[in-house]
Design a protein that fits this description.
By secondary structure, the chain is an alpha+beta fold. Helices cover 45% and strands 16% of the residues.
Length: 194
């Protein structure tokens, strides 16, 4: 459903228009931050939305984002895929190149989120409302329930381009969040591919 104003969007999401307006105005102040240890060492900053915003983000996730399919190469944050599914794709191959996308969520700007919502049928005003509700300080953040799905959906074009690139090198391609894997049954020139 492509809502065309605040009232229609609010009704679709199941919240009062005043509540949505309030959250859009104060979106950047509706988070609390903490750090968790990374498995590889160091700390990861989590920006978790407060319950009022989190409820709206969950509605956006369930009613707008999750029904849209992600690229077949995407395994993170996808029902019935996950890390085991990604590992099964890579298993048994002789050569593997892993690349990491630096600052994956924060590299996706509010502008890109806005453009995504426009691309699925929302007008500029509603796309702005949705992008404000899903971003913190102008970008996706780690901690919002919408960030993983939005990152996958916004990355679909790049996933398609990576498929083409991999195919040109006679490789296969899988992405798990910010980790890109190129692999084959035979050795390949990792330096050239990188």
């Amino acid at each position: 459903m492509a809502a065309n104003d605040l009232n229609t969007l609010s009704a679709f999401l199941g919240f009062a228009p005043q509540h949505i307006f309030y959250l859009v105005e104060l979106a950047d102040k509706m988070y609390f931050e903490f750090e968790i240890a990374k498995a590889t060492g160091g700390k990861r900053k989590i920006s978790a939305p407060r319950s009022e915003l989190k409820g709206v983000q969950r509605a956006i996730l369930g009613k707008i984002l999750e029904p849209i399919p992600v690229d077949q190469a995407c395994f993170a944050y996808v029902k019935d895929k996950g890390v085991v599914g990604a590992a099964s794709q890579l298993s048994g191959h002789k050569a593997l190149l892993r690349l990491d996308i630096k600052d994956f969520f924060p590299s996706i700007s509010q502008f890109r989120v806005h453009r995504f919502f426009e691309s699925i049928g929302y007008n500029s005003k509603v796309a702005y409302i949705l992008s404000r509700l899903c971003t913190l300080n102008g970008a996706l953040c780690q901690g919002a329930p919408t960030s993983p799905c939005l990152s996958n959906l916004i990355f679909r074009k790049t996933d398609r381009q990576m498929h083409s690139l991999a195919k040109s090198f006679k490789l296969s391609y899988v992405r798990y969040s910010d980790d890109i894997f190129l692999f084959a049954n035979t050795n390949f020139n990792h330096t050239r591919v990188r």
